Amino acid sequence: MFGDGDIYFGIKEQSPGYRFTTEHYDISQIILVTHGELRFFGTESARLLPGDFCLLVPGSAFRLRCETAGYRGIACEFWQTRRPDLPLDSSVHTADSAMRLLGKWVEDEYLSEENLDRKVIENLCRTIFSMGMRLRLRLPVVSVRRSEEYHAERAMELIQAHAMTGRPLHEVLKPLPVSYRHLSRYFRLLTGMSPKQYYDKYRMKLAARYLELTDMDITSIALELGFSSSQHFSQTFRRISGRTPTDFRKKAPRPEQESV
Question: In the chain, what are the domains?
Answer without folding.
Answer: 2-137 (2.60.120.280), 206-251 (1.10.10.60)
